[in-house]
Design a protein that fits this description.
By secondary structure, this protein is an alpha/beta fold. It has 2 domains: about 220 residues, no CATH class; about 350 residues, Alkaline Phosphatase, subunit A, CATH 3.40.720.10. A hairpin with a 3-residue loop joins strand 20 and strand 21. The longest helix has 26 residues. Bound molecules: (2R)-2,3-dihydroxypropyl phosphate and manganese (II) ion (MN). (2R)-2,3-dihydroxypropyl phosphate binds next to helix 16.
C-alpha cells in the first residue's frame, strides 16, 4: 500500500502541470466557473460560501460530469461543456429564485406543482424577480468568450495532436471520484440521514452544496414514483407501532360543545398575527378579527406547517392532522390516497360538506383534492359571477356575498353543514392598492405652532413610516380582507346563518415578506425617515428566531353567543386544529398526529424542515441551535434530543402515510385478517 501511495506521489510530482493547463483551458474555465457559481449560490442563500465540505462536493460532481468531455474530439468539446454549463447555471438560477420566495430549495418533484400554479407564478414574477438571481448567467457567457478566443488561436487542433484522450478521461473521472470519496468520508451520520430524507433542504445545500443536493433530489423525486415497490413493509411496521402506542384522545370540558352545529371555516389567505397586533394612528389593521378573537377562543401561538404546497398544504394539514409530504405537494401528487379528515368524520355524523373558492378548480388540483378531503360539493370559479376583481381574482367581498346565498340554499335543502370558504384577495404581491380602500400606514402627529398673529395652532405632520413599503401594502391588503370578514359576519347573521353555527378562522401561512420590512417597522426613526442605527439602545434586532416566531397566524373559534371567550397561548400547529375541533364537535379521529390542544399545557409544533417549537424553545434544525423563549427556563440536552426524535418520527410517519397510502392499505389488511 505504502509503495503504491509513493508511486502516486512520484507520478504527481512528475506531472507536467504547465502543459496540462495549456491544453485544458476550456475545461479549467468550466470547472472554476461552476465552482464559483456553487459558492455564489450559497453566498446568496445560506451564507456559508467558504465552507470546505460543500466546495469539495461541488468540485467532485463538476469533475465527474466534465470528465466525459474527453470522449469527444477537442473541437466538439465546447458543445458538451456548454450543455452542462447551462444545466448547472439553471440549477443555480432556479434555486436562487426559489430561495428568495420560499426560503428553501427547489425540487424536481415540484415541476408538476409549478405547472398548476401559473397564476401564483405571476405573483412571484411581480414580487420577487431580482437581478441577483440571474447573476449566475455570467458562467456560460465566460465559457463562450474563452471558447471563441481559443478557436481563433487554433487551440483545439494543437490539443488534438498532443493529448491522450482515454488517459485524460479516466484521470479526471478518478480524480472526481476520489474527491467525492474524501468528501463522503467527512459526512456525519446525521448528515447522511438527512440526505436520505431530503426534508431539511437548507441544511443539505449548506453541507453538500447545491449540485449534490439537486442530484439527490432527482433520485428522491424519481423514487417517489416507484415508492410502492420499495420500503412498504418497513413503513407499515412503523405505522402500526406508532398508532398502537398512541394514546386515544381524552374527553375534556370541551367535548361535544359544538355537536351538530354548522361549521364555517374561513381559510384566511396570508393573514399573520402581526396584522392583528398592529395599529396605525390608533386604527387597528384588523378591527373585525380583533373583535372576533376577543369574543371567541383565540389561539395566539398558532403556526402554519405548510411546505411547497402552501395554501393546499395548509388545507391538507388542517383537515387531516398530518404534515405535508416532504417532496412536492399532496394536492398535486398524492391527492388520490385515502386520508382521515374532519370533513369525512363529520360526513359520517350526518353533515353536508362544502368547499368554496373563487379560483379555478384546477388550481392546486382542488377539483380532485377536495374530493379526497371529503367534500360533497366544491363551488369554484365557474359558480361565481366575477363582478369585482382584486389580485388573483374575484374580490373577497363579492366572494363572501355570493357564498352566503349559496350556504343559505344549502342549509335549507340539505341541513347541517361543514363549509370551508377559501379567501383570495390578500395574496402576494399585495399591490392592488387602489382596490383595498383607505388605510394609512404613516405616522401622524399633531404639532403646536404659533402663526403670524401669535396664535397657537395645531398642525398635523405626517412621517412616511410604512407607506410605500411591501409590509405597509400588506397591512392595507389585510385591512381589506378584515373588512370583508366583518361584512361576512353581518351578512351571515342577517341571513340567520349564525344562530346555530361555529365560525372557525385560520391564517393559512405567513405572507413571506422580507426581514428588512420588519427591521423598518420596528426601528423606524421619524427624524431621518430611515432605520435606527444598530447601536441605538432602542434598536430591535430582527434575527432568525424573531422572524420565524413572527410567522404565527391567527386561529379563532367563535360563536355568536360569545359563550367561549378564552385566550390559549400554548404553542400550536396547524395539525392540532383537527383533533381540537373534532373533540368539540363530538367526533373521534384515529390517525391524527397533532393533539387536542385543550388537553395540553405544553406541546411540540413540528415544522416540515425539521425545526420545532414548544412554549419554551424554538429549535433551528439547520444549525442545531435553539432559542429559549422564557428567560427563566432551563433546557437539558435530553429534552432537545427527545424533541428531535419526536419531530423526525412525525415527519416520517406522516410522509409514509401519504406515499404508501397506509391508512387505506392497513385498513384493507385488517379487514382481510378479520375476514379470515
Ligand atoms: C389560490 C390560493 C393561493 O387559489 O389558494 O394559493 P397559495 O399561493 O397561497 O398557495
Ligand atoms: Mn395561501
Amino acid at each position: 500500500m505504502k509503495e503504491k501511495i509513493k508511486k502516486y506521489i512520484n507520478k504527481a510530482k512528475e506531472f507536467d502541470y504547465k502543459e496540462y493547463a495549456k491544453t485544458n483551458k476550456l475545461f479549467i474555465t468550466f470547472v472554476i466557473t461552476s465552482l464559483i457559481n456553487g459558492m455564489l449560490l450559497r453566498f446568496l442563500t445560506v451564507h456559508n460560501y467558504f465552507a470546505i465540505k460543500p466546495i469539495l462536493a461541488d468540485l467532485a460532481l463538476i469533475l465527474i460530469f466534465a470528465s466525459f468531455v474527453y470522449l469527444f474530439k477537442p473541437r466538439n468539446r465546447f458543445k458538451y461543456l456548454l450543455i452542462i454549463s447551462v444545466l448547472f447555471t439553471a440549477i443555480c438560477v432556479i434555486n436562487s429564485l426559489y430561495y428568495t420566495y420560499y426560503m428553501s430549495f427547489a425540487s424536481f418533484s415540484l415541476i408538476a406543482v409549478s405547472l398548476t400554479v401559473v397564476d401564483v407564478g405571476d405573483a412571484v414574477v411581480k414580487n420577487v424577480l431580482q437581478i441577483k438571481d440571474f447573476i449566475f448567467l455570467w458562467q456560460p457567457i465566460a465559457l463562450i468568450i474563452v471558447h471563441s478566443m481559443l478557436k481563433k488561436k487554433d487551440h483545439y487542433n494543437l490539443v488534438a495532436k498532443k493529448e491522450n484522450k482515454k488517459k485524460r478521461f479516466t484521470g479526471t473521472l478518478i480524480s472526481g471520484l476520489v474527491v467525492y470519496a474524501l468528501f463522503f468520508a467527512t459526512v456525519t451520520s446525521t448528515e447522511y440521514s438527512r440526505l436520505s430524507k431530503q426534508w431539511n433542504r437548507e441544511f443539505l445545500v449548506t453541507k453538500f452544496g447545491v449540485y449534490t443536493y439537486q442530484l439527490n433530489d432527482l433520485f428522491k423525486s424519481l423514487d417517489a414514483k416507484f415508492n410502492t415497490l420499495f420500503g412498504y413493509d418497513n413503513a407499515a411496521k412503523d405505522f402500526r407501532e406508532f398508532y398502537s402506542e398512541k394514546k386515544p384522545s381524552q374527553e375534556n370540558e370541551y367535548t361535544g360543545i359544538f355537536k351538530d352545529k354548522n361549521v364555517i371555516v374561513i381559510h384566511a389567505e396570508s393573514i399573520q398575527n402581526v396584522a392583528l397586533n398592529t395599529s396605525f394612528n390608533g386604527n387597528e389593521v384588523t378591527p373585525n378579527l380583533n373583535r372576533l378573537k376577543n369574543e371567541g377562543m383565540y389561539f395566539s401561538n398558532y403556526y402554519a406547517q405548510a411546505s411547497s404546497g402552501t395554501s393546499s398544504d395548509s388545507e391538507f394539514t388542517f383537515s387531516t392532522s398530518l404534515l405535508p409530504v416532504t417532496n412536492g405537494a399532496v394536492a398535486i401528487s398524492y391527492w388520490n390516497r385515502e386520508y382521515e379528515t374532519l370533513q369525512k368524520l363529520l360526513k359520517n355524523a350526518g353533515y353536508r360538506t362544502i368547499s368554496m373558492h373563487a379560483n379555478t378548480g384546477s388550481f392546486w388540483n382542488r377539483i380532485n383534492f377536495h374530493n379526497s378531503l371529503g367534500y360533497d360539493k366544491f363551488y369554484s370559479k365557474v359558480d361565481y359571477e366575477i363582478d369585482e376583481e382584486i389580485g388573483l381574482g374575484l374580490s373577497d367581498k363579492s366572494f363572501f356575498r355570493q357564498s352566503v346565498q349559496k350556504l343559505k340554499k344549502e342549509y335549507e335543502e340539505n341541513g347541517k353543514f361543514y363549509a370551508t370558504l377559501i379567501m383570495l384577495s390578500n395574496h402576494t404581491p399585495f399591490d392592488d392598492l387602489d382596490k383595498y380602500g383607505e388605510f394609512d400606514t404613516d405616522i401622524k402627529e399633531e404639532v403646536k405652532t404659533i402663526n403670524e398673529n401669535g396664535e397657537e395652532v395645531i398642525q398635523e405632520v405626517s412621517y412616511p413610516y410604512m407607506e410605500g413599503t411591501k409590509l405597509g401594502n400588506y397591512f392595507k391588503s389585510v385591512h381589506y380582507a378584515d373588512s370583508a370578514l366583518g361584512d361576512l359576519v353581518n351578512d351571515l347573521d342577517a341571513n340567520g346563518l349564525l344562530d346555530n353555527t361555529v365560525l372557525v378562522i385560520y391564517g393559512d401561512h405567513d405572507a413571506k415578506l422580507a426581514k428588512s420590512e420588519y427591521v423598518r417597522m420596528y426601528n423606524y426613526d421619524k427624524q431621518t425617515d430611515d432605520v435606527l442605527d444598530k447601536d441605538d439602545e432602542n434598536y430591535v434586532n430582527i434575527d432568525y428566531y424573531w422572524y420565524e416566531l413572527n410567522r404565527s397566524v391567527p386561529f379563532i373559534i367563535w360563536t355568536k353567543d360569545k359563550q367561549y371567550s378564552k385566550k390559549i397561548d400554548t404553542a400550536m400547529g396547524m395539525y392540532d386544529a383537527m383533533p381540537t375541533l373534532a373533540n368539540m364537535l363530538g367526533v373521534k379521529p384515529t390517525y391524527n398526529i397533532g393533539n387536542d390542544i385543550m388537553n395540553l399545557k405544553d406541546n411540540i409544533v413540528v415544522f416540515p424542515n425539521g425545526n420545532w417549537l414548544t412554549n419554551n424553545i424554538y429549535y433551528n434544525s439547520q444549525k442545531d441551535q435553539y432559542k429559549i423563549l422564557n428567560t427563566d427556563y432551563i433546557v437539558d440536552k435530553e429534552e432537545i434530543s427527545k424533541n428531535n426524535d419526536y419531530t423526525s418520527k412525525r415527519l416520517d410517519i406522516s410522509n409514509d402515510i401519504i406515499l404508501y397510502d397506509l391508512i387505506k392499505n392497513e385498513n384493507d389488511r385488517l379487514q382481510r385478517v378479520e375476514g379470515n
